[in-house]
């Protein structure tokens, strides 16, 4: 990472609830995909990762969630080093992850999907479920329907709802608006803002870069597995280089 890029990252990652710092690694014995990549989010804030296809955005999310062994760097949650923890142990510590693909159980009903999200909980889940139905009323109407029969936007609501069933501190979303219409995208972003207002931190990858940076407290532009540009959403949206290279002018 260049000095300037490093300084930008240090600026926005001062008191993170979650940080993957200096992450280097790849898949199995393959070549490194991430090269000293740092991603962080502060409490109740929205951090957005953007960048070209194949830049390593999903890989960075997997590294932060423990689905990828990093050779260098560390992941800390609430100041605690969790680099060695399995994904399931990270869920128990307050992380939830909605992956880019296969993020629901299509043959199960909407409600069964939500119940699956709470599999680690031994307490009463009815209040959390009611909150999720308040957030996404359509899921209440369709709770007995197979999740696979829902529209793309509704399926993403199921996936987000399922993740929220663990009552996470940090919610990680990989392209939550993939394949949905602009109106549905705006609605989903509004719901994500609502979730952040309850104090849950959001770390999100988005291909709708411009719209996502509009709601981002912090934005990361990743290129070839490294931090290329970092700043507030507003800073990145007004940066001529970022605009020209990544936002279509
Ligand atoms: N499961 C995997 N095994 C090996 N290589 C992978 C795997 N997933 C992604 N890659 C490679 O890692 C690089 C980054 O991919 P990815 O993180 O999915 O990018 P992005 O999410 O930014 O589009 C690409 O070169 C891709 O081919
Ligand atoms: Mg991806």
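Sequence proposed for the structure above (249 residues):
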């Amino acid at each position: 990472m260049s000095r300037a890029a490093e300084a930008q990252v240090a600026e926005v990652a001062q008191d993170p609830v979650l940080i993957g710092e200096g992450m280097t690694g790849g898949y199995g014995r393959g070549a490194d995909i991430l090269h000293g990549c740092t991603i962080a989010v502060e409490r109740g804030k929205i951090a957005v990762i953007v960048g070209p296809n194949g830049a390593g955005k999903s890989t960075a999310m997997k590294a932060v969630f423990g689905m990828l062994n990093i050779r260098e760097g560390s992941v800390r949650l609430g100041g605690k080093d969790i680099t060695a923890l399995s994904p399931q142990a990270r869920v128990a510590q307050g992380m939830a992850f909605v992956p880019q693909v296969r993020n629901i159980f299509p043959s199960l009903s909407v409600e069964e999907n939500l119940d699956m999200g709470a599999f680690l909980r031994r307490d009463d889940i009815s209040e959390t479920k009611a909150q999720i139905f308040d957030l996404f009323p359509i899921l209440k109407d369709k709770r007995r329907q197979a999740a696979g029969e829902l529209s793309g936007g509704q399926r993403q609501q199921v996936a987000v709802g399922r993740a929220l069933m663990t009552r996470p501190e940090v919610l990680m979303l990989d392209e939550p608006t993939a394949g949905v219409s602009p109106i549905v995208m705006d609605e989903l972003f509004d719901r994500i803002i609502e979730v952040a207002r309850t104090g849950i931190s959001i770390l999100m990858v988005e291909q709708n870069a411009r719209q996502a940076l509009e709601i981002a407290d912090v934005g990361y532009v990743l290129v070839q597995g490294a931090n290329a540009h970092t700043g507030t959403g507003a800073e990145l949206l007004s940066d001529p280089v970022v605009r020209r290279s990544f936002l279509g002018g």
